[in-house]
Amino acid sequence: MVPKSGTFSRSPSARSLRQEMVVGLVEGKAIESGAVRKAFLAVPREQFVPEIAARDGLEAIYRPDAALPIARDAHGVPISSSSAPGIMAPMLEALSLGPGLRVLEVGAGTGYNAALLKELVGPSGQVTSIELDPELAQRARRALSLTGHRCRVLVGDGRTGAPDQAPFDRIIVTASAPGVPRAWRDQLVEGGMLEVPLWLDSSCFGLQNVATFRREGELLRSVRVLIGGFMALRDPGPGRPPPVVPGLQVVARKGSSETLVSIEGPFVRSLSKATIRRGLATMLGRPRLGRRFTFRAADGLIRFLAWSDLRRAGFCSVGGRYGIVTLSADGNSAAAVLAQPFRSGWIETWGDRRAEEELDSRIQQWERAGRPTLEDLEITIGYGRPRGRGWKTLKGQDGFIRLDWTTRLAQRRRSELGGPSMKRTQDGVSRRAGAPAG
After folding, report:
1. Choosing from 5, 9, 80, 202, which is the catalytic residue?
2. Catalytic residue list contains 80
3. Residue 192 has what pLDDT?
4. What's the rounded mean pLDDT across residues 335-356?
5. Where are any strands of DSSP class E within 120-208?
6. Which residues of 240-268 are buried (b: 16+ CB within 10 A; e: fewer)?
């Protein structure tokens, strides 16, 4: 229940912790603009998660990396949360929000993000949030009313949008999805922006891409892609839970939540359980360490590999690092490209060199392609037959999803060489730029 008084928000410690969190977000470049900075300073997060603030203290809710679950299913699995400010801030920045804009939020959760949106669009702007769970919707309404943020919170299936309130200048989705329903595009004005966490291949459910799109006629074309992870968008239909990717894992000890090694992906179905267990056991051994990469390069390579149709390969985590692993048919050989978030990445191999040789051939393809990173990825979504060619075309909802590295990679190369190039800015407008990319 949301408290009836503003006890937490009037606490000096809440204000100081809020300021400390914002300083950290600015220093980490998650916050880039004065408007987003002011929004985070203005909204008291403790009013949206009062039970967590009361139980764990204000410090727990003002950590930049604090994602706070507020609802779980019958099995104890989190199904709704207040996202970490460290990912909320760059998502808000990417949307280029301003006074007077009309915004649709899919997934109200606690209402905290809706309050931030309202701060950014101001009194003349409109924020509509749609939430599948009636109890969560009512909770969000109470918190928004308590903090003085006038937002409309509807109950319904977010995949259909809010046609009675359309059109919108911005749509932000706070749950992950395998594609973009046509309704979201149709309810967006021409030139409007849509932001959604996408998992583009069931073999890599753990790899999400938070993409910000601009509507260009019938198409949606990405202007920015970020790293991030969100719970799956829930389906209101009976007996239709979020998709589950097959996989196996080894935890530190019985009852522990610490995962030592895990492997997941449809390829798990093609191998016997004995083979997968051998693979897990192989990866628990001491690895041979190979080449090192910057985090930016390693994450780009991991995503390149995820869409490269590697045999017997899938998403993995090893001791807190994530990546792509390939296994030999008997499970006695494994090789992985792993990244430690925002630190570094490297190649690790176990057993004999069969898996390493297959992985190395795909790494060579990545290098021949120009070593693309997530910054070079352009995602185009259409709702008909795909025209033209891209690096990879996936089946989307009612259409296609095209992935391409070439356009932005060429722009980055020209920029790094010091020549003028057409650089797409945060707001999606192409402008001349001659300075090396940051």
Report:
1. 80
2. yes
3. 98
4. 91
5. 126-131, 152-155, 168-173, 188-198
6. eeeeebbbeeeeeeeeeeeebbbbbbebb
